[in-house]
Specification:
The protein has 9 helices and 11 strands. By secondary structure, it is α/β, with parallel strands linked by helices. The strands form 3 sheets. The protein has a 6-stranded parallel beta sheet with strand order 1-11-8-7-5-6. Strands 3-2-4 form a 3-stranded parallel beta sheet, with helices on both faces. Helix 1 packs parallel to helix 9, helix 2 packs across helix 9 and helix 6 crosses helix 7.
Length: 277
């Protein structure tokens, strides 16, 4: 068996083309702000990619770069400045932040109406209540790709490995809502029967940041596998899933080239949604 490989770059290009057309048609003036703390190569590259996307579709860029030694109050001040900036219609605080910073306190300072990442407590609460809200970018990207590749979610047994607040937790809520109607299990470090859950799952989504954790022998044939993890190693960026899984899976979203490009595209999609509120 050889899996259908999900092409996130192609999907992202289609989304960006649609957004560019809408901006041109409506003459909307949008501005995406980013707050980058420090010079982590992965974060720097990711933020630069977001602004390249903006340039491609006609969205203005507003960059705020702080040193790695920036205090929590300095970061919060930067957040408040973008909250007040009329040219900034939505923004993100690039994660991770320094360990000395309380991430949730920083995110809580973002104006929910400018929360392009969908991580403000109000927007996460709206997600739980199934109200219209900005959805966190990576979960939104995963759902979009599953729908595009016509993966039947109704009643499907979905195993999400990883309970982080940016992917695992919001994704479990999103996929279990009535529109998707999947049966979702959220596995984590306390899960004792992971091997059994893996062999019983129709869709496996790995988001733990453990290089090549998921091996072919751990899944059943014909499963859908989505790799969300990313770890910087001496050999470059590595996902959570062993590429050999593609020989056993029916559909496989690799890293890189799968969810990542669509996550950036969903950020632009969220910015458009914020402008319509």
């Amino acid at each position: 068996m050889s899996a259908i490989i999900i092409n996130g770059k192609k999907s992202a290009l289609a989304v960006k083309n649609q957004i560019a057309s809408e901006i041109k048609r409506t003459n909307k003036v949008l501005g995406l702000g980013t707050i980058l703390v420090g010079d982590d190569p992965g974060s720097v590259a990711y933020v630069e990619g977001k602004h390249r996307d903006c340039a491609e579709v006609g969205i203005n860029s507003i960059k705020v770069n702080l040193s790695a030694t920036a205090s929590q109050s300095e970061i919060v001040n930067a957040v408040n400045e973008l909250n007040k900036n009329s040219k900034c219609t939505g923004f993100i605080v690039q994660l991770p932040l320094p360990k000395s910073v309380d991430v949730q306190k920083v995110l809580a300072q973002i104006d929910p109406k400018k929360d392009a990442d969908g991580l403000h407590p109000t927007n996460l609460g709206n997600l739980v209540l199934a109200k219209n809200s900005v959805i966190p970018c990576t979960p939104k990207a995963i759902l979009s790709l599953l729908n595009e590749y016509k993966i039947n979610l109704v009643g499907a047994k979905v195993l999400i490995i990883g309970r982080g607040t940016t992917v695992g937790r919001p994704l479990s809520i999103l996929l279990s809502q009535k529109e998707s109607n999947a049966t979702v299990t959220l596995a984590h470090t306390g899960t004792k029967n992971l091997s059994e859950l893996l062999l019983d799952s129709d869709i496996v989504i790995a988001a733990i940041g453990s290089p090549h954790f998921l091996k072919p022998e751990m899944i059943k044939s014909g499963v859908v596998v989505i790799d969300v993890g990313i770890t910087r190693t001496a050999h470059g960026l590595v996902g959570d899933v062993d590429p050999k899984v593609s020989d056993k899976a029916a559909v496989f979203s690799p890293m890189p080239g799968g969810v990542g490009p669509m996550t950036r595209a969903m950020l632009l999609s969220n910015l458009m949604e914020l402008s319509n509120q």
